[in-house]
Predict the 3D structure of the following.
Amino acid sequence: SELLYLQKFQSIEHFKQELIEYLDYYNNRRIKAKLKGLPPAIYRQQALLAS
């Protein structure tokens, strides 16, 4: 919902591109304090390696 309320989209293709970019940011670059300051994808990788 964050993505939808932040901007207007010119077309479905524009929306798809923005969604792909947002999901990449959300999973791979967004720092989360609860995840020891790591992005979710990196935290999951480290958790799987530790188990």
